Amino acid sequence: MPVITLQRDRFCELIGREMSIQELEEWLPWIGLDIEDVGPDYIKVEYNPNRMDFSSPVGIARALKGLLGLELGLPRYEVREGPVELLVGPAVAKVRPYVVGAVVRGLRLDEGLIQELIEMQEDLHWGIGRGRRKMAIGLHDLAPVKTPIYYDAVRPDEKRFVPLEAGEEMSLAEVLVKHEKGRAYGHLISFSDVYPVIMDAEGRVMSFPPIINSELTKVGPWTQELFIDITGTDMEAIRAALRILTTTLADMGGQVEAIRVRYPGGRELRTPDLRPRETVLRLEEANRLIGLSLTAQEAIECLRKCRLEAEEIGPGLLKVLVPPYRIDIMHEVDLVEEVAIGYGYFRLEPRRPPSPRSGSPHPKVELARRVRLIMIGMGFTEVMNFILTNERIHYEFMRLEPGRSIRLANPVSKEYSILREWLLPGLMANLATNVRERYPQKLFEVGDVILRAEEAETKAERRIHVAAAIAHSRAGYAEAKGCLDALMRGLGVVGWHVRPVEHPSFLPGRVAEVLLHGEAIGLIGEVHPEVLVGFGLENPVSAFELDLEFLPHMQGAASA
Prior knowledge:
By secondary structure, the protein is of the alpha+beta class.
């Protein structure tokens, strides 16, 4: 989750009111921020990625002013007509087809504000741009630029420029190899035989999106006129980012100026579009979800505290105007959340949900708890292994042919490539890890296994097993059978018995299957010596494993 640092003095200037760090720590969570760190003159907060307007202190201050009642209702943004045109060439359609932009004049930037803009730019790259894949932002000093501005694609060796912080002129191909940003983001365009560039009227490179800007248009404290370009593969993403960025700059005191973006074929855009969006909220639905009985006027006041505007257009029906930077508001339930925030979560009184009875543990959970208590009572130590495992441990070491286990499509590690089908291989791996510890060792696990189930919607079935392993110099079938007897007796299970069977993981003649009313529910026996050697164990091991889903307690465990 993105984190932003709010310097107290700077933030108090933005909200127009003095607040202590303690007051900020108290109020900021009520607009949806989590406190990460608090210092003597700063506070670090974490915001949800859907609220990308919180990517700058300006956006957070704008929201907090509403909740505090310092400024209510919809912020209005004027967009003047301007002379700048951005002409799009046909070649970019195959690599990075979309671009929008804006001009912001009258800015008074210092190093602190520039750093805020850079951090905001990177947060937008992450939150909306998905690592610059969908969208990338370029900020430019407009003063040295000759208009109109061109967005086109050229061959990798066709244009040369000095990238930011590079100190030397490079071709586009060289930037991808030599520059830090080129190595980080070059994969986004390396598939193409032409690369996108933004140039001024004299053909000078201003930007090589989505990689790096040129030193020609470097932004500094001297910058008073800012040109913004946003390129990408998703038109809605780049327009959303532009709305957030330009409204933030407007709240910093800048004057937003529209540009004309002319695409091939006569298509023309005027950007940015900072008009509010209209939507509708049903008062009855808001009251139902929040648990209140607000009147239309009370709901309107709540929305105004969240910097929205609203009016009643019919009985119980509100027309809501949403500011252009609130790209997170998509459905009616989002407006309901705004009503709750404006009302104040701290004013809501918790109530127990209406129910004829209290909750109780699920029978599977209750049975697993009872199994654990019995096994611990017999001196076993519980382990908890990952559901993910690998074929070597699950099959090869257990002397089994590879089965039809559920495999991960893109495992991060070869150690975790399949879902386990039984627990015993994991216990054997635990014993191998503890081979230098004192014996006897008695381990057990109660956990999930995942089996193929073609008839299920997910093509898989989750079942709860218990497995136990006993390791010492005289471990044998009789000891494991005694523990199994005690477990079944403790659970009150009757009608079970064992029947000799052959299994590759166990010693022939010393293995049996466990049956309940004639149905196989598990295995018990002495582990085969080759399995012991595979795991690097020197002491004999006896073990059993049961499928708990077959036990009758699965229906009656909650009341047992």
